[in-house]
Amino acid sequence: MVQPLIKEPSVIGPEGIPLTLATLPPPETERWVARRKAELVAAVRGGLLSLEDVCNRYKLTMEEFLSWQRQVDKHGLRGLRVTRLQSYR
Question: Taking the alpha carbons of 8, 41, 23, 29 in that order, is the dihedral positive or negative?
């Protein structure tokens, strides 16, 4: 008997590549580059993780994560770059 292939839930990330829980940044991540921030925003928006889950898993405040979402909405991936933060605020 052939086992059915079980597909892991995924969402499309900021670079057009599917993201799964296994491919998200590790929970102990401390250095948040723009791409990683955008991946978490995509994961929450796509239903891979809830807002509460992402904040607990990555030890983020809701305010911090929501600011990432606002920057993505206003300026895209470029808005998440720390070196550009003052330009976009």
Answer: negative
